[in-house]
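Today's session is about reading a structure prediction critically. Students often jump straight to the picture, but the first step is always the sequence itself: look for stretches that repeat, for charged clusters, for runs of hydrophobic residues. Only then move on to the predicted structure, which in these notes is written as discrete structure tokens rather than atom positions. Here is the chain we will use throughout the hour.
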Amino acid sequence: MAREGYTRVRAHWRRRPAPRRSVKRLSGWTVAALIAGVWLWTQVFGVAEEAGPPPPAPPQATAPVPAGR
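Below is the predicted structure for this chain, in token form.
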């Protein structure tokens, strides 16, 4: 007698497929496309760069005055 949830296939026992769930999971490619879309959105519209004040300008380097010989 077959156990519940299993069926006899040729010479071995196979698990019966579970019924499909109503909620479909996102595939790996879909997740990658969503991440790429968010990254592209921030590159085009610059949302990430306008979050804070601009960085201060680096100080100007001065050349040392050569000593007279």
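Discussion point for the tutorial: The radius of gyration is 32 Å.
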